[in-house]
Amino acid sequence: MRVEGTRFFVGEAPFAFVGANVHLLHGPEARTHTEATLAAVAADGMTVARVWALGEAPVDAPSWQREHFAFRAGPEGWIDGAYRHLDQVLVTARRLGLRLILTLSNHWGDYGGIPMYLRWAGQFDQGAYGYGDRFFSDARVRGWFLAHLRRLVTRVNPLTGVRYGEDPTIMAWELQNEMHGTPEAAPARREWVVAMTRALRGLGARQLVVPGVLGYDLALEREEWIALCALPEVAYCDHHVYPETRLQSNTLPRLRRYIDDRTQLAHFVVGKPLVWGEFGFAQRTAVATRALWHAHFLERVFFDGASGALAWIYQPPLPWQGTYRIVVGDRRHQAVRRVLARFARQVARDGVQARNPALGPARGRELLNPTHVALAGWAGVHRGWRRAIDGSWRLPIAVERFGRAYFEEAGAWDGGVLVHAYGRRTGWFEYRFAGVPAVSGRLVLRVRTSSEYPGAAAPPEGWTRAHLELDGQRVGPALEAPADDGLGAWRELTLLEGAALGRLQRGVHRLRFVVDPGPQAHGLALYGREAPLNREPIEGGSGPIELRLRPLPRPHLGRPNRGGPEQLFGLPRRLLRRRRAPGRKFVFGPRDAVYAAPAQALRPVRPRSPSCLAPHGELGLRSGARRPRHAPERSVSRRRRGQSRPRLPPSTPSARHAPARDRSWNESEGSRDA
Question: Model pTM greater than 0.85?
């Protein structure tokens, strides 16, 4: 097989295909049903199957793992049984008229993958930022992977006598399943692909070679995908997609734009064929609906002129259940298989001709599928302002209940340690809340936040600078979210205060967290309650976003010949109760101590408790005393009923305006006044 322009050719005939990923090499059940699984693929008219020719285990792997799952246990622990089974797979595929794409390593930890290679090298800090990038730069790891290539390419199949590197049953060598990594390591990945491709050629491999990338969703990833596919050593462009899990393609119009954008770049920017190495729709909907989505996908793929698509995944009945499985022999999957068979036979018979007029050289790198997409969230309004013990009003806002989000990739996740909403790169979250209480003060935001990187790791400089908007107007200082660690840190910002709060007292308002383009635009994560399955301690505690309305401190409200202050001794109003004495103003006082009377009827008295202080001699204070409901005007307590107090002479200033030495209580003055 060879590539000319944007097409595959076998001899002089163009070649396009519908195929399937197949589960054959891992597990006793899969190996036992190898022939039946491949026979089902061929019976559905497919011509290509993708197989994972990989499996790495620790040096001390148990016997069951060695026997049924691994190709090697440790760097030197080769397991011949896995290679012999692969020999049989090639023989069966050749007999059924199938071509195979052999995948040689895995980015993920399934059956070993990059994590196991790095574990062999003594690198166990899997949560560190850029951990997987070390696979492409570590000299020992590169040597171990080359040993696996050499063992496969130079192997002679004892069942056919054909060397793997020359076997036409092998359509292509795929260097890795879903290769990707940090933006900083993109040059290292490209250099690794070039080096491994040249190594394969040096070992005599005559088949096509492809990196095996995951694909792209972000604008930065899009440029990296173009650069990698454009390498001369790369035979064709490939991409994986599961539309239900992708923000950009969870509706039919978005799915079409998603496919269009990749095809435009592959054909008219890179100039190579495009193969969808994995695609699938989950078995969550009705059987007919799932089959219809497969039909929509394949129809657009070949309308755009792509060269192939591989469904995920044909497998025998297994103890574990996969979300995207297509089980051979299960009647519930027959509808999907009929759709795949129809397109497979149609493509094999008629070939592929690009018919989409929206694609062409004139469009160049134009973005056909927006990288930023609005995500509709919770439709409700956050209500329920509650008064706290410190006198402030508080409104909790669940982070996952955002009204809308607009990021390159966004969503909410309840796994890990804390439930959180996440948005990649640039964009915003919007929350709607009811008007604030009619209280003068300042509005404070308290939120636990961090930047947003894949996983739970970020470089130290990967923090984010965001800002807050209320009803479209920027408020408060900048929000600086620390580098992503999966937990974040608490931040508290004052948004508005004083008269500016008046516009928030009625109606429904919009609060936005906005990340603008710039050097510190690394996405945003907002953390809330503890995740349901969390077992780790949470430093600093968990909780929702919280708006706090803090009343401004009030001055002393006591007046001559009038009632007392609204608040005494630092206690909030909710802990004070309102009392009424005959002929007196309403005043606030602790339940056990404070009453007010006209100033001319009072004189300073010594408090009986350190907590009861007589400010300026204006109030009579007695700890533990309770005033009767109907008391004589000139008395202070039941025990002193009828004992009148001397009035101040008309020419004497009131107690409030008297000199300080006359307002202070001491032993000598107390006895003199008595």
Answer: no
